[in-house]
Structure formats: structure tokens, C-alpha cells
Amino acid sequence: MGLISFTENGLYCSKGDFYIDPWRPVKKAVLTHAHSDHARAGSEKYFAHKDSALVLRARLGENIRLETAGYGEGFSCHGVKVTLYPAGHILGSAQVAVESDGEKWVVSGDYKTAYDGITPAFEPVPCHTFITESTFGLPIYQWKNQDQIMAEIDQWVRSNQALGRYSVLSAYSLGKAQRLVYSLSKFGYPIYAHGAIYNMHEVVRKTWDLPPVHWLKPDTPKDAVQRGIILATGSAIDSPWMKRWSPYALGICSGWMQVRGAQRRRNADAGFVLSDHADWNGLITATLATGASCVYATHGFSAALARYLKEHHGLRTGVVKTAFGEDEED
Ligand SMILES: [Zn+2]
Ligand SMILES: [Zn+2]
Fold first, then answer.
1. Which residues crowd ion ligand 2, with CB under 5 Å?
2. C-alpha to C-alpha distance for 141 and 134, rounded to whole angstroms
3. Cα dihedral 84/202/65/24 (nearest 10)
4. What are phi and psi of 233, to 5 degrees?
5. Helix, coil or strand: residue 29
């Protein structure tokens, strides 16, 4: 058996007696990041990157037992060394390296290889075995660079303004929202946000220096809102809250927008291919850069990625079923 095994509670290191992103309550949970499919409530003790501490407390409870570290740091447990490295996914996200007796495994968590301007960039970590996410593990998923996407959004907002419509962007509250606020504020747009995004953004701003958003309230002046951009979560868009801001155009920012028909299925007026995950080339480049001879793919199109790495690069590969990727992500 290797350093990490795949159990019904999640990825488990028996030698160090800890789990990584367990989906059931355990004694000791090492977390890659604060998204709800990776960070779940109920464990006795947590370990995570220091920049995700406030978000984790906001989501899992103020009183959780939480130990934190920076990148390149970690802890030791029964002779197993655990170290965190940047994953480039969202603020505070980390890859987890596990090392013992000369054997080294890395769990990627979610990651993206392109730099977004705010999240410390993904860093390949040399290892023997790499457990990689594969949310967008098909060759059709190829991202354009972020500046290009933001320029497309800028054009779209201008045309909405010319037509007298509000511009509403759907984004999840942790990660995508901060990325949009950071990039779109540069165009001079004031950003208005639904309460769920406003609250999360305020928590994140206690750790990171990011532009503020305005809390969009029923009495916010309509002409001001029309000159800006409204950020809302998917569930807010389907609620009565949204009706007040009519007529509006809805744009969805997600890697899934790459596929034809995805935009129409979600009743959007525009789809912007902006993801916090690596695209197909990113997954392959990142995996090969670790030098790992054994790769396990989880989360998404794992079989396709595993087959490609085996056939084209001669790696030993496997597919692991996990409970990740069920929720707020893309
Ligand atoms: Zn995530
Ligand atoms: Zn995930």
C-alpha cells in the first residue's frame, strides 16, 4: 500500500493518521482549500493554509480547531512530513505534499496553471505519485488568457448599457467573485453584489487587499447600478431578488461555457469561458512537471486524462472516485 490510500472517508495517510479533504468527519483533516466540496464541517482538528483561516472559520464555525501554515511550511506527524504548496486555484488554496522514508506523494486539490493576478501561482512539486484533479480533463477544454476574457466582458457591459440593460454576472462567492472584482474594477466599473457574495468578499478582504464591492440593496440608485456590474450567485439569479433589476442581461463565467449549448441551457445571454481550474493542456503540463511516474486522477473527466497520460507518456495511472466537485465549483 502506498503513502495515501483511498477510503470511504476520503484520501487517508495511515502512517501519519490524517485525511486530506475528507468528506466525512474525521480526527485530523488537512484541507487543500475552503470550497465546500473540500472543506466539510465536523472534523475534530483541521490543518490548512493560513490565508484560508478566516473563510474556513466563517464556513465551518468560529470554534473549529484549526492549525495553519504558509507555503513551503507544514507539520510532521508520526514521521510523515506534510508541506503546503501554491495551487493557484483560489486565495489560500494549496497542494499537499506528503513525505515519508524517501517516498513523496502530492495531492493537488483543485488547481489552475494560469496566473489570475491575485492568487499565488501554481507551483509543480517534484514527487513520485501525483493525485490530480481532472475537472476539465478533455481536449476540448482550452482556455484563452484572462485579459482577453475580461475585454470580452467589458464589451458586453458596454453594449448592455447602450441598450439600457443591467449587466448581471453569475459567479460563485469564493474565488470567481474575487477574480472578477479585481479584474473588472480596473475598467472603472463599480461592482454591486448580492448579499452572499458581499459577505464572503468582506471576509476575504480581511486577509487580502482587494477592491471593495457595494452591497446591492433595494434602494441602491438604479442609474448607478446600470453603470456598473451586478455579481450574483446562481441561486440568487433564480430568486425574486433578481426581478428588481430588470431588464438585465445575464452572463455566466465558467469553464463549462466552452461547450456549445451550455449557455442556452442555463438561460444566459452570454457565456464567458473563465475557470478556476486548469484546462486540458494545463492538467497535462502540470502533471508532467511533477516528474511523477504514477498518477491518480479524480474529480471530473478522470478516465480520459488517465488514459492519455498512460498512452502518450507511459505513466502508471489510476482513477479514483471521490466526493469532490459536486458543488459550487464551476
Ligand atoms: Zn475548489
Ligand atoms: Zn473541487
1. 37, 110, 324-325, 329
2. 11
3. -80
4. -80, 160
5. strand
282 CA distance to ligand 2 centroid (A)? 16
Domains of the chain: 5-140+277-319 (3.60.15.10), 146-272 (3.40.50)
> What stretch of H or E contains 159?
helix 146-162
Question: How far is ligand 2, taken at its centre, from the CA of residue 125, in Å?
Answer: 19
- What percent of the chain stands above pLDDT 90? 88
Q: Which residue type, as a one-letter code, is found at position 111? A: Y
For residues 5 and 90, give the distance between their C-alpha atoms in angstroms, rounded to a whole number.
26
- Give the pLDDT confidence score for residue 330 in this predicted structure: 47
User: pLDDT for 33-91, tens place per residue?
Assistant: 999 999 999 999 999 999 999 999 999 999 999 999 999 999 998 999 999 999 999 99
- Measure the CA dihedral 59/62/64/70, to 10°: 80
Give me ligand 2 centre to Cα 325, in Å. 4
